[in-house]
Design brief:
alpha/beta; 3 domains; three-stranded antiparallel sheet; 15 helices
Length: about 450
């Protein structure tokens, strides 16, 4: 019997008289009432010395930040803003963050509206916010210069999988290391899972000599746990009324054992405890200087653009006199998704890939206004009783996690939106649409 789609519980919030969010699940605030943005800058950006470190990056060099507790995304936006102001134009920021209870889109909009100075960035995050479904969600901004990996689910399960990632921002060094940690879960007493020994051991394995960490808490258990995985820890003055906080630097190149660390993993780069059987990750010594791509359809052109943004010379070869003359020559390509009610690798891939594609073309439209992506919405008609039942099940699932996701329309609603007589109920993807692939190429 097939398994139904796994649900993820959204954050449950109350709002105080200042319009600031409060978590009822953890009975704790998301940030300082004095100033959440200034707290983020002091506790995480300044304590990790990020302005100077960003400014010293070389050409096409990556800087990796990992965070426990994405919350409102405030730390990500603050880091993005500082990186844009301080780092070389062709350097890259990879921001990895975990979140067990993601905010609903309406709550995210309300929270981020507190900081108008971040609106140019927060609007992009809001537009590309992933469906709150379990797993890893990837978003690129500024032509791939800023990369967000948002891991929705249990950090104790998802962060160890980063060890096996072949994303270039992780593999750009032999140590596959994070450069700076933002430890920003709710208080340890209220959310102990984000401060567990298991999680901090993973933190140690993802760090190298010189990796820094910062956190608002000064709890002794956190200090000792960081020391146990090779960090030198010190207390400094906390933000606002908070007396102390912790900063740390990795000083010991010690190996922290964890389940799955076998001799086979160490000697065979194609094998890992978290890999699927078909996963092959061949090791390369360095980034290629020149790549040749055969074909000039939408897949080839997208690949070429990604490589070029990484500073790699690209040559595209095609038998036709211009790009997009094969299957991609269709003048109207519709962006939509066929979502299943059953859980599985394909369903999870679809739930992650559709929002990613939507985000990709939205970002492309920002950079190239003449591209003309038409987000007119897409309806999938329930042409029979079976399809209508499946669509209803999907909408029940989406409504449990966020009512801003694809919705189910009856025939009258579908007719009103389409301005055409529609005889079937439909699943409506409001932000979906179409484009001409030739324009993309």
């Amino acid at each position: 019997m097939s398994k139904t789609l796994e649900n993820i519980e959204a954050a449950k919030l109350e709002w105080d008289e200042q319009g600031q969010p409060f978590s009822t699940l953890f009975n704790d605030v998301y940030f300082s009432k004095a100033s959440g943005l200034e707290e983020s800058r002091y506790v995480f950006l300044q304590a990790n010395n990020l302005q100077e470190r960003f400014s010293l990056l070389g050409e096409y060099q990556h800087f990796v930040i990992a965070e426990t507790g994405f919350g409102t995304g405030l730390n990500f936006l603050a880091a993005w803003q500082l990186f844009s102001q301080s780092a070389p134009a062709n350097a890259h920021l990879h921001f990895i963050s975990t979140e067990l209870h993601p905010l609903k889109i309406a709550d995210l909009q309300r929270a981020l509206a507190l900081w108008p100075e971040l609106s140019a960035l927060s609007s992009q995050l809001i537009d590309s916010y992933p469906m709150p479904t379990p797993g890893m969600h990837f978003r690129n901004f500024e032509s791939g210069r800023i990369h967000l990996s948002l891991l929705l689910g249990d950090a104790n399960v998802l962060l160890p999988q980063v060890l096996d990632s072949d994303h270039p921002a992780i593999t750009h060094t032999e140590s596959r290391a994070v450069d700076a940690w933002f430890l920003d879960g709710f208080a340890p007493a209220k959310n102990p899972a984000l401060w567990s020994e298991q999680l901090l051991q993973t933190l140690g394995r993802l760090s190298r000599i010189g990796t820094t960490a910062a956190t608002f808490t000064a709890a002794g258990d956190v200090k000792r746990a960081l020391q146990s995985v090779g960090f030198s820890v010190k207390k400094i003055t906390g933000f606002g009324k908070k007396r102390d906080m912790i900063t740390a630097v990795k000083t010991e190149s010690n190996h922290i054992p964890y389940k799955g660390d076998t001799e086979q993993e160490k000697t065979d780069p194609r094998h890992s405890a978290h890999d699927t059987p078909w996963h092959l990750s061949s090791k390369t010594d360095k980034k290629p200087e020149h790549v040749v791509i055969i074909g000039s359809g939408i897949a080839a052109c997208t690949t070429a653009r990604t490589l070029a943004n990484k500073g790699i010379k690209v040559t595209v070869i095609d038998k036709n006199p211009a790009a997009a003359r094969g299957a991609s020559g269709n003048p109207q390509a519709v962006l939509y998704s066929k979502i299943s009610t059953n859980d599985g690798y394909l369903s999870r891939f679809v739930l992650a890939s559709y929002p990613y594609a939507l985000h990709y073309y939205q970002q492309l439209q920002r950079e190239y206004p003449d591209l003309v992506f038409h987000p007119c919405g897409v309806m999938q008609l329930a042409v029979n009783e079976k399809t209508e039942k499946q669509q209803g099940t999907l909408c029940d699932y989406f409504n449990q996690i966020d009512n801003a996701l694809p919705c189910f329309l009856n025939t009258e609603q579908a007719t009103d939106i389409a301005n055409l007589p529609i005889k079937h109920a439909a699943l409506f993807f409001e932000k979906a649409g179409w484009l001409n692939p030739e324009n993309v190429c």
